[in-house]
Write a structure and sequence with these properties.
With 224 residues, this protein is an alpha+beta fold. It has a single domain, classed as NADH Oxidase (3-Layer(aba) Sandwich), CATH 3.40.109. It has eight helices and six strands, in the order ααβαααβββαβαβα. The two termini are 28 Å apart. 22% of the residues are buried.
């Protein structure tokens, strides 16, 4: 590395090309079975599993390595219920007029509505906050760079880790989400990014047929 900065050796496992291909295909098969669901079992999730998945999320790359995120894992039934009630209040306003007809038409094949009872049933909520700026020890502000991109990547790491561990999840994004910061007592420099609903899928869990309609590789990839 040409820059005059402290460094350590990169420790990364590489593989023969045939094994690379097999590992890539195996991982694709694993992730192709990942779908969002609203059908969760009323069952606690292991704390150690959630912690390990959050540690994975914390390894995501970020702008200037500032890691502008905070994750709040909620398992307390009372707090989950408060979040459900606040979310349903916002969702009723959304479906009753806040959303455009075009937006509602796009959601129609997914069968979503203002009922968020899955928040009560799922074993854990992981509320992901994006930090628009950092807080220095002296109380000053530290500018953060590429916040949305960084938090989005970390969220992807987390969703992948949860699926790999055998837990289902749903990306829940009520609009607006200010109530999450209030209920969870987060500081002013944090804005709720996603309420990730996590748990065991119910035995009779279903997904909308529309969710199986994925673009073909040639529709979303170009090789140059």
């Amino acid at each position: 590395m040409p820059l005059n900065i402290p460094t350590v050796p990169l420790k990364m496992q590489t593989y023969p090309e045939t094994e690379m291909h097999q590992r890539a295909r195996d991982f694709f098969e694993l992730m192709s079975a990942r779908h969002s669901t609203r059908d969760f079992a009323d069952k606690a999730v292991p704390h150690e599993v959630i912690q390990a998945c959050l540690e994975t999320a914390g390894r995501a790359p970020s702008g200037a390595n500032q890691q502008p995120w905070h994750f709040v894992a909620v398992t307390d039934p009372d707090i989950k219920h408060q979040i459900r009630l606040a979310a349903e209040e916002e969702e009723r306003a959304f479906y009753a007029g806040r959303a455009s007809d075009e937006w509602l038409a796009a959601l129609a094949p997914l069968g979503t509505d203002e009922d968020k009872s899955f928040i009560d049933r799922a074993g854990c909520l992981i509320v992901i906050f994006a930090q628009s700026y950092g807080l220095k020890d002296d109380g000053g502000k530290e500018k953060h760079y590429y916040v949305q991109e960084s938090v989005g990547i970390a969220t992807g790491f987390l969703i992948t880790a949860l699926h790999n561990a055998g837990l289902a999840c749903l990306t829940h994004t009520p609009s607006p989400m200010g109530f999450l910061a209030e209920l969870l007592n987060r500081p002013k420099n944090e804005r709720a990014y996603i309420n990730l609903v996590v748990g065991y899928p119910a035995e009779d869990a279903e997904i909308p047929t529309h969710a199986l309609q994925k673009k073909r590789l040639e529709e979303f990839v170009s090789f140059v």
